[in-house]
Amino acid sequence: MAKRILLALAALLLLLVAAVAVNTLRQGSRQLDVAPAPPLAVDEKAVADKLSAAIRLQTISSLDDPKLNAEEFRKLHALLQERFPRVHATLQREVVNGLSLLYTWKGTDSGAKPVAFMAHQDVVPIAPGTERNWQAAPFSGEQKDGYVWGRGAWDDKGNLIAQLEAVEMLLAAGFQPRQTVYIIAGADEEVGGQRGAVEIARMLQERKVRLDFVIDEGLVLTEGILPGIKAPAALVGVAEKGYVTVQLTVAAPPGHASMPPPPGTTAIARMGAALKRLDDEQFPPKLEGVARELFETLAPEMPGFQRVALSNLWLFRPLLESQLAKGPSTNAMLRTTTALTIVNAGNKSNVIPGQAEATLDYRILPGDSTEKVLQHVRAKAGPGFEVKAVGGSTEPTPVSSTAAASYYQMQRTLRAVFPGTLVAPALYIAGSDSHHFVPIADSIYRFSPVRVKPEDLGRLHGTNERIAIANLGELVRFYHQLLRNLNAPAP
Q1: Is residue 27 part of a domain?
Q2: Domain that includes residue 297, residue range
Q3: What is d(CA 165, CA 172) in angstroms, rounded to the nearest whole number?
Q4: Domain match, 235 and 247 both
Q5: Is 373 helix (H, G, I), strand (E, B) or coil?
Q6: Considering the entire predicted model, what is its pTM?
Q7: Which end of the chain has fewer beta carbons closer than 10 Å to its terminal beta carbon, N or C?
Q8: What is the rounded distance in angstroms from the CA atom of residue 362 to the CA atom of residue 388?
Q9: Peptide bond preceding 155: is omega within 30 degrees of 0, i.e. cis?
Q10: Hey, which residues are catalytic here?
């Protein structure tokens, strides 16, 4: 009997191994087979000079003061007019709310849905006291060691200059787009986009515009960042997380510190216990939706056990969820995240306070919602706590389909301009102006082909922001080729 049981178990194990092996081998590459794009001569030094000049203008935006640095923005507008004469002679330019820009390039096919290329003019400030840590002055636009240095080089003046350069070159060649092309350059993306992108989206909606797709800043061309992937990987953001800031308040009888109440009953103690529960019992990780499609797309390109596990989620999903949740970046792709950010209680060392407050930052996964977050916080905090959303909040965006023709064009362009690069859909965990266009766009892609290595991740909104001059030329080639591809839809 025991022998028969062992033989049966061995047979089952062999069947399991065989099923895993067959399922792994049948998962072929999902990458398009595309011929390299024809060589395109780009005057990279001239483009770098334009970006350097743009960086020298300190277009720092303000949430509360719409007029802050307005003259710097106007200087940027004048610079763009000077450096891109064909764009400004051919495209219609509208100035929205004084500082944001909307360019319209009329297409030849009035029945084709327009597209929108987005970038923003504004930048974040330099953290006080960090100026001396920069290898080049943060608003110098200095060119050295093959890079353009300064605030906005990556986020997001590099994209704006590259888009306009691509259009300038196409106009010089006599190119006309089949679809109407909008170029949208908000002036307040870094503070929410309410005066720029929101107003431009409203204007287009009033004009009955329905966009085929929007492309905006977001994810990048990663190099050496994804474990197991040696080739560059272009991660195209097909959805964007929402966010909500939650304020938690609890009251308890105040008193003199010399006569404390029983343990666990003060406002501070109750708040501490609630915050520990919220930190320990977060939303569960879920390898589904965009995250699942990302890893299933990349699985055939991975070595060894990584390929086996990701090709057989029916068996390895719990293990993968547990492992991926341990890394901050992969964890953010799998769940609605909880971040404890502010705690306030008490103002004197010998007084037990009667109230404690805490602020939590939630980044919401598609499929969850602001209301679901509030319900979760109420359940974990328990009775006696006031829970409310404060400040602005957004719901997660819809997920743009990778079966859409526009996504095919993104793949086609990336594989042609960057031969050997892997293309995969991914979740953008930060925010962009593009989410304001959800009501009028069929698809939204959050991507710019900025080459990013692990050591570059801290440069975004940080110290020593820069972009390689050669990479800046690649940005121009990408936008140039994408516009050309849109005129010749693939079957």
Answers
A1: no
A2: 284-335
A3: 11
A4: no
A5: helix
A6: 0.93
A7: C
A8: 13
A9: no
A10: 122, 189
